[in-house]
Structures are given as C-alpha cells and as structure tokens.
Amino acid sequence: MKHIALVGLGVIGGTFAKAIDAHMPNTFKVTAIDKNEETLARAKEDGVIQHGEVTNQTILQDADLVIISLYPKVLKTFLETHAQDFKPGAIVTETSGIKQTMLDFIAPHIPSHVDFIFGHPMAGREKQGYNYADAAVFNKANYLITPTELNDRKNIEEFTNFLKSIGFGRVSEVTPRMHDTMIGYTSQLTHAIAVALMNSDDTSRETYKYVGDSFRDLTRIANINEYLWTELFLENKEALLESFDTFEAEMQRLKTAIQNDEVENMYDIFRQSSERRLAFEKSDSKRKD
Amino acid sequence: MKHIALVGLGVIGGTFAKAIDAHMPNTFKVTAIDKNEETLARAKEDGVIQHGEVTNQTILQDADLVIISLYPKVLKTFLETHAQDFKPGAIVTETSGIKQTMLDFIAPHIPSHVDFIFGHPMAGREKQGYNYADAAVFNKANYLITPTELNDRKNIEEFTNFLKSIGFGRVSEVTPRMHDTMIGYTSQLTHAIAVALMNSDDTSRETYKYVGDSFRDLTRIANINEYLWTELFLENKEALLESFDTFEAEMQRLKTAIQNDEVENMYDIFRQSSERRLAFEKSDSKRKD
C-alpha cells in the first residue's frame, strides 16, 4: 500500500486528507506532520490519517508521496532541514500560491533522490485551519502544475491521475512565470479588490440592510489570512502590480463614461464584460469531476 | 380574495409571481401586464398568474396591490399613461434600483386616490427575463422601502407583512437619499468592479485554467444587462462616483503598501477587512425567513 504523507494539516493539507478519505478510502497509508498536536489527534479521530508526528520521526523516510502545504517561508525552512530525510524515489510536491520565486529558492535544495513537483490547487477557503477543511472544495476544481526539466514525466502523470481521483476537475501544466502572472490577476487582484471594497465602507452605516448577493460574493474573500497573503502578494509583487494597473485603467474607462454620460460607450463596456463572462463560463464549465 | 397585479413580468416581476405561488398558493388573485404575450402564456401555464394582458384592459381598475417592475424610464411612461386607471385605495409600488430621482419624477404623477410605495428588493439575478425567475431568490433577502409623507402607515405595514410572507428576510425603511448612497456602494460599485475585472483580462490567455471560486464569484455579475444598468448608473451618478473615489483610495492604499514592502501596514489592511467582513456576516446572518 502506498504511503502518502501530508506536511502541514491546515485547510489545504486537511482537505487533501479528507478528499483522499472521501474518494479513495483504505487505498493508501495516510500520515501527517503538523506542529499542532490537537490537529493531528482530530484528524486521527476523523479517520483521515493513520498516524501523525509533530516533527518528522519516521514519516518522511517511508512516504512515497509527500504533499507539503506550508506557508512559503516555512516551506523553505522545512526543505532545508529535511532534504535528506525523504525516501529515495519519492514524489514530493508543494501547494503554494506562487511559483517562480518558490522554484528559484527551492531548486538548489531539492535532493537528487526525489522528484519535486511544483503545484497549486485553485481551491481555497477564506477560513484557515484543519477544522474548515472540506473535501467538497476540491471537487471539479482547477489544479496547476509547473513542471521543471528535472521532473520525471511518469511521475507528473501519476500525480495528475491522483489529483483527478480525489476530485480535481482540470489539471493544467503551465510555466512558473505564466502561473504567477495569471494568479496575480485571477486570485491576488480579486483578493485585493475584495479587501479594498470592504475597507471603503463607512462603518457608521448599517450596510447589512442594503446588500444583495453581489456584495456578499464580492466581499467574501475580504476575510483574509494576513500573514499568508502578505507573503503571497510580496513574492509576486511585479505581476500583481501590473494587474492593479490594468484593472485601474478599466475602472477609469467606466468612470469617464459615467462622468460624461457616454451611454453608447457604457453599453459597449457592459456588452464586453457580459460576452467575456459568458465565454469564461463556457470554458470553465468543462471541468470534469 | 385580494387581487395582486404584476406590471412587468421579467426576472423581478416573475419572481414575485413565483414567490407568491410558492409561499401563499390560492390566497390571491394574481394577474400580470407584460408586453410579451409568450411570457404571459408561460406564466399562466406555470399557474403563477390567472390572467394576463399585453396592455392594461381591466387589471389596473381591479387590483388592490400593483407591483410595477419596469425599467425606470418605462415606469415613468407607464405611470403617466395609467395614473387614472388604478382602483381607488390601491397600493401601488415600484421596485427600481434608484430612489431619489424616481421619487422626484414620479411624485407629481401619483394620483391622489392610490398609496404609492417606493421599494427595492435586494435580490436580483444576472440573467434577465421571466424564465430566470426563481422564488428562492427572495428567500431571506433584504427589501428597502423609502416611505414618503404621503404614505399611509397601515399600508406600509401591510406591504411589509406581505413581503415577509413571500420570503423576504429583512424589510428596512430608509430615506431615498440614504438608499441611493448605499446602493451606489453595495450594488452599483460592485457591478462596476466586476465589469472592470472581467474587461481587464487579456483574452489571448486561457484564464479558465487559472481560476478558483474567488474569480468566479467576483465576475458573476460582469454578465450585466447593459440597458438597465446604464440607466441605474446615470440616475445615481453622484453617489456612484463617490463610491468609485473611496474604493480607488483603498486600492491605492494597498498598492502603496505592496510597492514599499510595508508588511505591518499590509497586516493592518487585511485585519481591517477581515474584521469588517466578519462583523458584516454577523449582522447579515440575522435575516429571517
């Protein structure tokens, strides 16, 4: 029986544990390393891991697949410390939200006896911690893999199949640079917008009386993990700031049209966004579970 | 049996018809006026109206409650044409997304023999038309009423009770000015943001591969009815542009922090938005159905 080790049992690692249990029960030996003993106990109680360690004792030496879901900086330290502990031939993967800087930093530390795959599940939650992990979050979700020239093709295919078998809908291989550019737009800019929208309220008002789902949807991710997202934003500063600029230009375009009562121009802007959203929905709906 | 007439059987009027049928079947006589004969036939087939007219023949003269869900400009024409057709003592209400300019325009045309209530259901859909009407959309939703000094208190209470009985969770009475200021922020700015976010994409990219729910949620309303929203934006220009400015200032605050690696400042910004969103969720969750 293959052994899967989860390093970090927060909301992402925890979701891996629960998704493996939900989709492929009794198929793997599943273990976890997490600094929080209570989390490990809870996951054992839930039956989603068989064994846990607060710091690695025996797990890394035995695991065939190691999924590391730690904050970028913690991940770097973990790899430096444990580079030699992995089992020869193991697949080791990380799940962080930025890729180029991770790759630059990690590449020199990758031990030659493992195959290190960089990946990113496009499925998060605004809440943090194992208790908010929910297997359903991975269902039909996108997963991005940024292969390096060191990766064994067979391992990437095996990992891709594993991801699909635990619920992911589409697994795409992209370059680290493209990953970061796109994530700066689809994920980081959207979080920045939600934060700014929430913070631009005047708290003396009873805003909750005046809202529909639009406001609820657009501010959901304003509840944000400040440590994680500060790291992600700063590690992807260039791409993110470019997204800011493009977005601001579009806001300005609409604002000018409103200021000058440019009705036809407003129709064009709204038609453009509607067409784009419909085209996006069409492509997005082709994810399979 | 009381007679409720729905003028305009688009997505809002249609939702009223379906919500009345879902929550209080066989309680009212329900009729509709809509320029589209097929829509009327469909609603009759669905059993949510008993009778329809393409232009008013007998409906307005008999209805005790008239709910008008037309575009602002069409609504104005409708009222000018039909001011004298309403039944004496009827409650007439409209559902448009702006209030001060509607009130300014409509007030002189309100016939003295009806009680005209200005209201706004905070529950829309990005899709238009009767076919997308869904009673569930009103469930637990907010409703805003902007009373005038001409309204009979008893009628406002009766209408409020009716709204709660067809699913609305919270019915608030506010001033037209406050309504428009808040809607400029909670609804119009959010739509503007979604439109700008969608339009700031580079369509040569396969964006659908790189998205999670954040992007899906933030762009849902980028699919927008260009005629309706152009009217709404321009009729509420001042409040909307103020919201743009406040939002832009918050985007700039975050951008500057990122540019200068101001980690503590970023933590503060994210903590502020998280606290605000959590406080908002707490108040918002108190809607009853």
TrEMBL record, chains A, B:
One example of a Gene Ontology biological process annotation: tyrosine biosynthetic process
Domain Prephenate/arogenate dehydrogenase: 2-288
Coiled-coil segments on the chain, per record: 237-264
SUPFAM superfamilies: 6-phosphogluconate dehydrogenase C-terminal domain-like (SSF48179), NAD(P)-binding Rossmann-fold domains (SSF51735)
Xref: Pfam families: PDH_C, PDH_N
UniProt xrefs under Gene3D superfamilies: 6-phosphogluconate dehydrogenase C-terminal like domain, NAD(P)-binding Rossmann-like Domain
Keywords: Coiled coil, Oxidoreductase
Metabolic or biological pathway, per its Swiss-Prot or TrEMBL entry: Amino-acid biosynthesis
GO function terms (MF aspect): NAD+ binding; prephenate dehydrogenase (NAD+) activity; prephenate dehydrogenase (NADP+) activity
Family: Belongs to the prephenate/arogenate dehydrogenase family.
Record-given protein name: Prephenate dehydrogenase
Source organism of the structure: Aliicoccus persicus
